[in-house]
Amino acid sequence: MGVEIERKFLVDKNRWQQLEKPEGTLYKQGYLLDSSEKVVRVRVAGENGYITIKGKSEGFSRKEYEYKIPVQDAEEMLAHFSGTVVEKTRVKITVAGKTWEVDEFAGANQGLLLAELELEHESEAFEHPEWLAEEVTEDERYYNVYLAKHPFSKW
Amino acid sequence: MGVEIERKFLVDKNRWQQLEKPEGTLYKQGYLLDSSEKVVRVRVAGENGYITIKGKSEGFSRKEYEYKIPVQDAEEMLAHFSGTVVEKTRVKITVAGKTWEVDEFAGANQGLLLAELELEHESEAFEHPEWLAEEVTEDERYYNVYLAKHPFSKW
After folding, report:
1. Is A146 part of the annotated catalytic residue set?
2. What is the pLDDT of residues B70-111, one digit of tens each?
3. Helices (H), chain A
4. C-alpha angle A77/A23/A122, rounded to 5°?
5. Across the interface, which of B53, B72, B77 has its CB nearest the CB of A77?
6. DSSP per-residue string spanning B54-105
7. ipTM confidence
8. Beta partners for B7?
9. Are B51 and B41 in contact (CB under 8 A)?
């Protein structure tokens, strides 16, 4: 178990594209449940599968429980049990000792670029890389659960 | 992943009580989701925790995915995320080479005794032990999801 503290930002597309960066990993994820109280997510990340249970967001924090599962199980559950599957390539990039996860969305969310940083506590300081744009941590439209139902290409 | 084929019976209380049988394990379980399409169950079984995803029942069969998780996580999820928790003691008893699971319910479902047998295929033969009473495989009132909402003591 853990409490997740996460800040989320839009990414400046031009600056991001010019950056030298590592290879990304293909993610596919869908939701068995997405209420305001709790979320049950199934994810395929490259060669691995995961199931994740998240509680309600409280400020920047939320309870989160994540378990590795066989990737074949994850694929089957996405095919049988979830609604729209969100697809993206996740690039991990370290800036001033902190690892950012930048998601380049595909499919119905093509064109969206989001950067996330996980923190130890809510007031923790961090360097803002030059490719960051505005913060959207508390904007629910950028939650993946929202993007599954209301893809970016239709905004 | 797997497809679960299960048959369920009531148990003759007098015959069951007179039987010599092994110690049972205490189970507590609750549901993060229980729709007709899919179920997400969290269970504490003795010293172990589990999360289980089940699909829709089709006859005696349903898809089932089960993962072991830290028991502390399971306890926390039952406390924070589930509705009513179903409590029971599960006794495993082997009859003619097949292992029956007999659940002695407690709490709000006190007085209910249910026996389950998992099979390889739907037409598989098995011996009926003398403590079995009527079959209730397709009676939805005996699903644990139903018992969580409508406990046996209130029937």
Report:
1. no
2. 999 999 999 988 888 999 999 999 999 999 999 999 999 999
3. 13-18, 71-81, 144-149
4. 75
5. B53
6. E---BTTEEEEEEEEE-HHHHHHHHHHH-SSPEEEEEEEEEETTEEEEEEEE
7. 0.78
8. B117
9. yes
Spatial separation of the C-alpha atoms in residues B69 and B52, rounded to whole Å: 10
| Cβ contacts of B62 on chain A, cutoff 8 Å | none
B77 within 8 A of B42, measured Cβ to Cβ: yes
What is the Cα–Cα distance from B80 to B87, expressed in whole angstroms? 17
Model confidence over A82-136: pLDDT tens digits? 888 999 999 999 999 999 999 999 999 999 999 999 998 888 899 999 999 999 9
What's the residue count for chain B?
155
For residue A148, the tally of other CB atoms under 10 A from its CB is 20
Confidence grade of residue B3 (pLDDT, cut at 50, 70, 90): low
Q: In chain B, whose CA is at the least distance from the CA of A50?
A: B67
CB under 8 A, 24+ apart: contacts of A11-20: A11/A102, A11/A113, A11/A114, A11/A115, A11/A131, A11/A132, A11/A133, A12/A130, A12/A131, A12/A132, A12/A133, A13/A113, A15/A130, A15/A131, A16/A102, A16/A113, A16/A131, A19/A93, A19/A131
Domains of chain A: 5-154 (2.40.320.10)
Q: Which residue of B has its CA nearest to A41?
A: B40
Cα separation values, B19 from A140, B34, B112, B113, Å = 58, 35, 17, 14
- Determine the Cα angle at A73 with ends A153 and B46, to 5°: 125
- Would you state the structure tokens that stand for residue A76, as one six-digit string? 């089957």
